[in-house]
Specification:
Blueprint: H1 4-21, E1 40-46, E2 48-49, E3 57-65, E4 70-72, E5 85-88, E6 94-96, E7 101-102, E8 106-108, E9 117-121, E10 123-132, E11 142-151, E12 153-154, E13 163-172, E14 181-182, H2 185-188, H3 191-198, H4 205-212, H5 215-228, H6 238-247, H7 254-282, H8 293-310, H9 314-317, H10 320-326, H11 333-348, H12 354-366, H13 369-395, H14 404-420, H15 422-425, H16 434-453, H17 460-466, H18 470-495, E15 505-506, H19 509-517, E16 522-527, H20 532-541, H21 545-550, E17 555-560, H22 567-576, E18 583-587, E19 599-600, H23 605-616
Parallel strand pairs: 15-17, 16-17
Antiparallel strand pairs: 1-3, 2-14, 3-10, 4-9, 4-12, 5-11, 6-10, 7-10, 8-9, 11-13, 16-18, 18-19
Length: about 625
């Protein structure tokens, strides 16, 4: 063991050294506070001195939080978490004159929550607007305002019992016509910024991704969200329009065709972006701006004019300016494509889904037109991306068999497609059963024209020779195609969904209150007369027998938002946070909305039945 004296001296020095190096080991663990109120300290600062007796003033409530702890935000929390609340104690001579303004929190996924939610760390600020209830009761030179801040505090391991911290602050009263002066402005200078940030819901998908993933990932998400918009049925009409327009173009070099298709997509994006920013900044419903009867008639008229060019009528009496705009065989072809894109961006305007509504909400909260345009332009580029390639490959139809008869006939097919598109656009303006007759008639008429009328007839020796020519087989194909369209017309008439037998009542707040008393669930359909997806919802979904059966025992309300600028509609939009139609709202038997079930845009019958069933359990 060596020298015993040396060993004892080394042990003594090691013990002394350990005492200096690791003093924390000797301390007792920190005590956990009894409740959440012990984690915070609160101070309040009035905005004016003396306070006005006839007008509102503000209190800046400064909440300091102990190191290592945080308190929950004021909204967007998981179920069971207590939000930050600030209130006046009862029996006072003051009252709150408006909604409090909260600073934005920091998003964190804690406490077993799958999604991040807002919390406050170190310090936060709440601006509380206050006014005097009865100025006759005030006689002394100063008075105390009694307040209460209710919080729930947590650290990384435990959450404390929610508790309220009571405190008071003195405010001065005016004496001898004393002039009111601003004070404590270092707190209120950031009040406007707090208001702007607070308007953005903390569970907004764009807000959340910007905080967590950064700008580049968020814009990629927006692009993919636009790509997903192509799954909404209301963009389907853009497919035949694109094919018809580009399929009739003259053969060009691939780069020229791709440039023209790019101009078409940019046109769509410019229109859609402008409509999105307008809706966000004005509070209008997405798609309502240019979905008026005048615009729909204008689009339909343009389609008819373009279809006539497919039948060769332009060569007879076409205006020169129109040819310059839409002709594809000259250097101005890209201008025509851009113009077509500008017009048909309107087609996509009423197409909504939860993601596009989230973007609309975020842009409205930020109130930044430039940021809004860039975001919506990115979204619409994603929407238009498939049409870039659809337009490019549609132009390559010219490279198929070059028989003159074949190409003339195909051009007439495109003409019939364009001629039929107004049936879609004008549907909101027509009687309920109009398309039940019009669509089958259109298909049957198209079959007759394309199968027999728009064919090349030959007689005598020319007919005999044609039997051994490839065009003979193409003529058989024309006849078969015509028969197919005629049969499709008859089948469409027979299979056309009948108008919904579901009886909706006009929206009325009193009916909602009555349903809550009777413990009856409520379904609210927010719709508009100009909304094409809403019409599709009525025809395909509400007419389904499974949906009608599932809705038994429900109160069914229809809220018409056609007059989107009127007072009652504005109130409805604000109450239910409606940004686009159709929006489907489900209210449980307890009178509370099931926001997780809310649907935006067209929804097929089976999905609607699933939502109805889940709330009925």
């Amino acid at each position: 063991m060596g020298n015993p004296k040396t060993f004892i001296l080394s042990l003594l020095l090691a013990t002394i050294g350990a005492g200096f190096i690791t003093p924390g080991f000797a301390e007792a663990p920190a005590e956990i506070p009894a409740d959440s109120s012990k984690v915070i300290s609160v101070e309040a600062y009035p905005s004016l001195k003396p306070i006005p007796l006839s007008e509102s003033f503000e209190l800046a409530i400064r909440i300091k939080i102990k190191e290592g702890w945080h308190i929950n935000g004021h909204e967007g929390l998981p179920e069971g978490f207590v939000p930050l609340q600030v209130s006046l104690l009862p029996s006072q001579r003051f009252e709150i004159s408006g909604p409090p303004k909260f600073a934005p929190g920091v998003l964190k996924a804690i406490g077993g929550s799958e999604k991040p939610f807002p919390v406050y760390e170190k310090e936060t600020l709440v601006i509380l607007p206050i006014k005097v209830k009865d100025k006759a009761k005030f006689k002394e030179g100063s008075v105390a305002i009694l307040l209460e801040v209710r919080v729930q505090a947590c650290d990384d391991k435990v959450c404390l019992r929610p508790a309220a911290a009571k405190f008071n602050t003195e405010v001065s009263l005016p004496l001898n016509n004393e002039v009111t002066q601003p004070i404590n402005q270092e707190f209120f200078k950031i009040s406007d910024n707090i208001t702007k940030e607070d308007k953005t819901p903390t569970d907004n998908i764009i807000y959340r991704f910007l905080l967590e993933k950064g700008v580049l990932v968020t814009f990629l998400l927006i692009f993919l969200g636009g790509l997903a918009l192509n799954l909404t049925p209301c963009v389907y009409p853009m497919i035949p329009i694109t094919v018809s327009y580009f399929g009739s173009q003259k053969d060009e070099k691939p780069l020229v065709i791709l440039g023209r298709a790019t101009a078409y997509v940019v046109g769509i994006s410019l229109t859609y972006s402008t409509l999105g920013v307008t809706a966000a900044l004005t509070g209008k419903i997405l798609g309502s701006t240019l979905q008026s009867p005048t615009v729909l008639i204008g689009i339909s008229s343009l389609l008819v004019i373009l279809s006539l060019s497919m039948f060769g009528l332009y060569e007879l009496q076409a205006p020169r300016w129109l040819l310059d705009k839409v002709a594809a065989g000259n250097t101005k072809g890209w201008i025509g494509a851009l113009g077509m894109g500008l017009v048909f961006g309107i087609v996509a305007a009423p197409c909504v889904d939860p993601f596009s509504i989230g973007l609309l909400t975020y842009v409205a909260a930020k109130a930044n037109p430039f940021l809004g345009f860039i975001m919506f332009f990115t979204l619409s580029l994603g929407l238009g991306f498939p049409y870039l390639w659809l337009g490019f490959f549609s132009s390559n139809l010219q490279k198929l068999p070059r028989s003159g008869m074949w190409m003339v006939w195909v051009k007439k097919v495109f003409g019939m497609i364009l001629l039929g598109m107004p049936l879609y656009f004008l549907n909101p303006m027509m009687p309920k059963d109009f398309n039940h007759i019009a669509v089958p008639v259109y298909l049957i008429l198209s079959g007759i024209l394309l199968g027999w009328v728009f064919t090349e007839n030959k007689t005598g020796i020319y007919w005999l020779v044609s039997l051994f020519h490839p065009s003979h087989y193409f003529k058989k194909f024309q006849h078969a195609f015509g028969v197919f369209l005629i049969l499709a017309g008859f089948l469409t008439y027979r299979a056309w969904p009948q108008p919904a037998e579901i009886t909706f009542q006009a929206y009325n707040a009193n009916l909602l209150q009555q349903a809550a008393k009777e413990k009856k669930p409520v379904f609210i359909d927010f719709t508009a007369s100009w909304c094409l997806p809403c019409k599709e919802l009525e025809i395909k979904t509400f007419s389904d027998s499974r949906v009608q059966e599932a809705f038994k025992g429900w109160l069914l309300l229809k809220a018409d938002l056609s007059q989107y600028d009127s007072g009652p509609v504005e109130e409805l939009k604000k109450t239910y946070e409606i940004m686009g139609v159709p929006t489907l709202v489900f209210v449980g038997a307890d009178g509370a909305e099931r926001k997780n079930l809310r649907a935006i845009g067209f929804i097929p019958p089976e999905d609607l039945v699933q939502k109805i069933t889940s709330i009925s359990k």
